[in-house]
């Protein structure tokens, strides 16, 4: 296009020369001469205007030329401010995002097992690289900086009380009592001889036959009592067990002695963890397990990740309320990010543009919009020629 525009300028000059040379013999050439003169002026003027945007015309440092290279810094700052003020605003960003149900789209995509399997493969594939890049010092740093400080603030006795409350809710602890009674019964039945021997040692002045009788009746009575407790959900011993558990939970929650015992126990556990050199063992164990699992045909890690993503997707699709909450959360995050970081984004654009080479930027911009720039030259040639003919016509009419 640049060659076309330049050739058109050369054609105007050639036409002008021809008209000047033969106008005396052919007066009618005054009309094409007027067209050629004005077209030449228009072509040269538009060539100058186009070139002056990007460089000095013919390499001559004429004032107010090479506009883009000279003003690159100001253009970069203006571009960054323009984008920040007109694009990176909460109203624009949140307004565009609010019309899109991102949670539903993501949930629908994850609900397809093939898609979730793809994500699971990517995540699982990154695990070996992640684990290979970690060493014992990393694990130790993680525990020392994140895990152990949190553990030190943990109230073990209160946590144990909460566990007991959860365990006793809905009588979940009763099967434990039944299991305990069953174990005691089995031990009594299997150790009658031991009980007899201990009873005989403590009662030296009774006959062995009497000792056996007493022990048998005692064991039979205990076993019968345990059968009654197992068979009767409302037995008195069950109620006493409930009260004992509740009292224990209350004491663990409020007793200073239990809190002190919990702190000492936690301190000993932390010291044992720090002094035992378990960080490397833990890392080696996790790395070996993950690598072996990922190398197998049926990977538990991949299946677990894929099933988790599918469940998340199906759960999101079936609960519009969850979608609304996720979308609201996403919009809040977008709004917060725009408010907090839009200036950094515009500054990034400004710095990048400032860092470009001025000549390279000018060349890229000229090449990107080059066809339209050359059409300006072409149009200027024809528009200038047309105006020249009109001016010549006006002069001709007034002269007559």
Notes on the protein architecture:
There is one protein chain. This protein is mainly α. It folds into two domains: 2-70 and 369-399, no CATH class; 130-309, no CATH class. Helix content is 85%, strand content 0%. It contains 19 helices and no strands. The chain has helices at 2-22, 30-54, 67-70, 72-86, 90-98, 102-111, 113-132, 136-152, 156-168, 174-190, 192-202, 208-231, 236-254, 256-275, 278-295, 300-318, 320-355, 358-368, 370-399. Helix 4 (72-86) packs antiparallel against helix 17 (320-355) and helix 13 packs across helix 14 (256-275). The longest helix is centred in the C-terminal third of the chain and has 36 residues, at 320-355. The mean pLDDT is 85.
Structural class: mainly alpha
End-to-end CA span: 42 Å
Strand content: under 5%
Radius of gyration: 45 Å
Beta strand count: 0
Largest sheet: none
Domains (count): 2
Q: Which H/E pattern describes the elements?
A: HHHHHHHHHHHHHHHHHHH
Low-confidence stretches: none
Q: Approximately how much helix is present in the residues?
A: over 70%
Overall shape: it is rod-shaped
User: Residue-averaged pLDDT, rounded?
Assistant: 85
Tell me the number of helical segments per DSSP (H or I, 4 or more residues long): 19
């Amino acid at each position: 296009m640049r060659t076309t525009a330049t050739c058109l300028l050369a054609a105007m000059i050639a036409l002008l020369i021809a008209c000047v040379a033969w106008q005396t013999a052919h007066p009618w050439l005054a009309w094409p001469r007027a067209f050629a003169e004005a077209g030449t002026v228009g072509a040269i003027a538009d060539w100058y205007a186009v070139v002056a945007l990007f460089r000095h015309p013919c390499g001559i440092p004429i004032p107010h030329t090479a506009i883009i290279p000279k003003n690159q810094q100001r253009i970069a700052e203006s571009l960054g401010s323009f984008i920040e003020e007109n694009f990176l605003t909460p109203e624009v960003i949140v307004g565009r995002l609010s019309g899109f149900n991102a949670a539903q789209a993501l949930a629908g995509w994850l609900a397809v097992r093939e898609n979730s399997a793809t994500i699971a493969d990517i995540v699982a594939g990154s695990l070996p690289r992640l684990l290979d890049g970690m060493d014992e010092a990393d694990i130790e740093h993680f525990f020392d900086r994140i895990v152990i400080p949190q553990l030190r603030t943990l109230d073990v006795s209160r946590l144990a009380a909460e566990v007991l409350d959860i365990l006793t809710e809905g009588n979940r602890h009763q099967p434990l009592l039944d299991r305990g009674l069953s174990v005691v019964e089995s031990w009594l039945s299997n150790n009658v001889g031991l009980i007899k021997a201990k009873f005989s040692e403590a009662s030296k002045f009774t006959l062995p036959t009497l000792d056996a009788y007493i022990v048998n009746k005692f064991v039979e009575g205990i076993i019968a009592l345990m059968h009654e407790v197992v068979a009767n959900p409302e037995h008195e011993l069950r109620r006493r067990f409930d009260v004992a558990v509740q009292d224990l939970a209350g004491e663990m929650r409020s007793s200073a002695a239990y809190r002190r015992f919990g702190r000492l126990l936690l301190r000993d556990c932390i010291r044992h963890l720090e002094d035992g050199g378990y960080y490397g063992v833990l890392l080696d164990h996790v790395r070996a397990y993950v690598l072996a699992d990922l190398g197998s045909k049926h990977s538990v890690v991949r299946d677990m990740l894929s099933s988790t993503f599918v469940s998340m997707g199906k759960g999101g699709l079936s609960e519009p309320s969850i979608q609304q909450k996720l979308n609201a959360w996403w919009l809040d995050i977008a709004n917060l990010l725009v408010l907090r970081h839009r200036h950094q984004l515009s500054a990034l654009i400004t710095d990048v543009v400032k860092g470009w080479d001025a000549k390279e930027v000018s060349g890229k911009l000229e090449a990107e919009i080059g066809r339209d720039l050359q059409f300006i030259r072409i149009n200027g040639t024809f528009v200038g020629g047309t105006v020249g003919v009109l001016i010549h016509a006006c002069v001709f009419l007034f002269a007559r």
